[in-house]
Specification:
Elements: E1 4-7, E2 10-13, E3 19-25, H1 32-45, E4 49-54, H2 57-60, E5 69-72, E6 75-78, H3 79-85, H4 90-103, E7 106-111, H5 114-121, E8 127-130, H6 138-145, E9 150-154, H7 160-168, E10 175-179, H8 195-202, E11 207-211, H9 217-224, E12 229-233, H10 251-268, H11 280-286
Helix pairs in contact: 1-4, 1-10, 9-10
Amino acid sequence: MLRFVEINGRKVGEGYPAYVIGEIGINHNGDLDIAKKLIDVAAIAGCEAVKFQKRTPELCVPENQRNKIRETPWGEMTYLEYRYKIEFGEEDYAEIDRYCKSKGVTWFASCWDEPSVDFIEKFNPACYKIASASITDVALLKHINSKGRLIIISTGMSSMDEIRLAISLLDQSRLLIAHTTSSYPCKTNELNLRMIQSLQKDFDCPIGYSGHEVGLQTTCAAVVLGACFIERHITLDRAMWGSDQAASVEPGGLMRLVRDIRNIEEALGDGFKRVYKSELPLIERLRKI
């Protein structure tokens, strides 16, 4: 895999530093102030981008789930009401757009239905994300592809046949593929990080990793295996209410993750053997010949 793409002028591909995405998702719980704090966390840690999720609840919530009562921080409500509660509207996203620009952070969203794509399109997004759950939604994939923007597609809970079919519907010159396992949190023995290299062999586009595990070491290992971009859910506190919080990275962990990724990239070098200046005194002192 030799090709790269550019996200807001930042090259992403083999030979370039891993592009780090902080997945805010729905961890903001519908609170714009929390969203801004998470953007701050991502910016301070050194993430290049943050990602949100956008849904039209009446299209995305199954009929048999809509009226189920759910306990929430705002009291009991139907699942459909809850889904609306955590969705941001146009004014919210306008403020997110302004705030991200002020912090020098790119933002985009995974859109779960066609009207959500059209909604996010108003903000001239740098790219679109196709969630693992949407990989078999042919109409949605074609609609996203029609916008002519960069696309990141996640491959969780999918067979290789499903992945190949989805990718055949997309313009590969604008595509990035993320290996992932869609468990929250994901067990270490189900991460299957070598799939990063398998995808590199099969597809001529940047391959990355979207992690849902607890801990940071395995995400760093993904970089060693060649992941060109990294995505992790981020949160202010893993104890906060919400389905994705437990598999998310807190502020201190995110700072360590980005730091360790950059240290690993520096340590990997270029693969050409050389004698460093720091070694010369040792040659003089230790070698007899």
